Amino acid sequence: SAKVIDGKLVAKQVREEIAVEVTKMKDAIGIVPGLAVILVGSRKDSQTYVRNKKKACEAVGIKSYEVNLPEDSSEEEVIKHISGFNSDPSVHGILVQLPLPRGFFEWYSFAREHQLFPFLVLEVLKHMNDENILNAVSIEKDVDGFHPLNIGRLAMQGRDPFFVPCTPKGCMELLHRYGVEIKGKRAVVIGRSNIVGMPAALIVHSQTKNPEEITSQADIVIAAVGVANLVRGNWIKPGAAIIDVGINPVDDPESPRGYRLVGDVCYEEVSKVAGAITPVPGGVGPMTIAMLLSNTLESAKRIHKFK
Ligand code: NAD
């Protein structure tokens, strides 16, 4: 059965390596990398992510700056904070926690359902646009790698982006640390969201069409679909390396929370066929924040020309 790719362990190693480098940098040039996180609104899950990012920074010696803005903040207000961090030399990474409060289409459905069109017009006029917000982050400090210019550079040959988005970067790091060669291999990425699937596909230069048929020819499979247990044992070429990005809750009356988390890959079946596989939880998940720290360190080194 497949070798388990232990993301929890790798993330711990990465964080330890980062802590060592942060200390070296501090000792050599007196500079500590800084990460600014902007949270708009009060979504519980976003608050948890922000808290975890902050804790992870503290643990490796990266200084974190946090701004919490109310749900009804205007686009200008959010951009004002971003601009402040863009020009603040102690900040090397800026991230705006997504999703931002309701955008146009969500307001549209809400208003249509409740027949509130005049209200909709008011909300749309005052509300923010994700693209304008992401565009406002300086590409040199865009540690999430979500600025269209960074994504564009990722897509162009010979033009390195300043940052690779954290979750796909974490997937690559797992393959790398487990000795899975990418060069010359056939890789399939299932899913093409902006934050996971699309950048992952740009890195491995592949496309997904008939997932079942094509996946069965792949040496490397990256699943970022958001559908529990979609990828089955009979989709997989024996010996393939499987990176499961999915985090999907499924009902489980036996669990104290009433649900448990499973990936996009049916672990029970696929682990019998694959050569290596990431579990959920404990695979890609812990790598995302580790890569955020890595991007922040990289940024501070680049800005201060520290090798
Ligand atoms: P998303 O919903 O934005 O994107 C899913 C993508 O899969 C879309 O491109 C969609 O077209 C495609 N898709 C949906 N059903 C499909 C099917 N049956 N066959 C082929 N393609 C299909 O989701 P996302 O943000 O990319 O997240 C995907 C999963 O990864 C979710 O379970 C999410 O919770 C998880 N996730 C994990 C991390 C992490 O750190 N481990 C980070 C982000 C997302």
From TrEMBL:
<keyword id="KW-0378">Hydrolase</keyword>
<comment type="pathway">
    <text>One-carbon metabolism; tetrahydrofolate interconversion.</text>
</comment>
<keyword id="KW-0560">Oxidoreductase</keyword>
<keyword id="KW-0554">One-carbon metabolism</keyword>
<dbReference type="GO" id="GO:0005829">
    <property type="term" value="C:cytosol"/>
</dbReference>
<keyword id="KW-0521">NADP</keyword>
<comment type="subunit">
    <text>Homodimer.</text>
</comment>
<feature type="domain" description="Tetrahydrofolate dehydrogenase/cyclohydrolase NAD(P)-binding">
    <location>
        <begin position="165"/>
        <end position="302"/>
    </location>
</feature>
<dbReference type="GO" id="GO:0009853">
    <property type="term" value="P:photorespiration"/>
</dbReference>
<comment type="similarity">
    <text>Belongs to the tetrahydrofolate dehydrogenase/cyclohydrolase family.</text>
</comment>
<protein>
    <recommendedName>
        <fullName>Methenyltetrahydrofolate cyclohydrolase</fullName>
    </recommendedName>
</protein>
<feature type="domain" description="Tetrahydrofolate dehydrogenase/cyclohydrolase catalytic">
    <location>
        <begin position="5"/>
        <end position="103"/>
    </location>
</feature>
<keyword id="KW-0511">Multifunctional enzyme</keyword>
<keyword id="KW-0601">Photorespiration</keyword>
<dbReference type="GO" id="GO:0004477">
    <property type="term" value="F:methenyltetrahydrofolate cyclohydrolase activity"/>
</dbReference>
<dbReference type="GO" id="GO:0004488">
    <property type="term" value="F:methylenetetrahydrofolate dehydrogenase (NADP+) activity"/>
</dbReference>
<comment type="function">
    <text>Catalyzes the oxidation of 5,10-methylenetetrahydrofolate to 5,10-methenyltetrahydrofolate and then the hydrolysis of 5,10-methenyltetrahydrofolate to 10-formyltetrahydrofolate.</text>
</comment>
<dbReference type="GO" id="GO:0035999">
    <property type="term" value="P:tetrahydrofolate interconversion"/>
</dbReference>
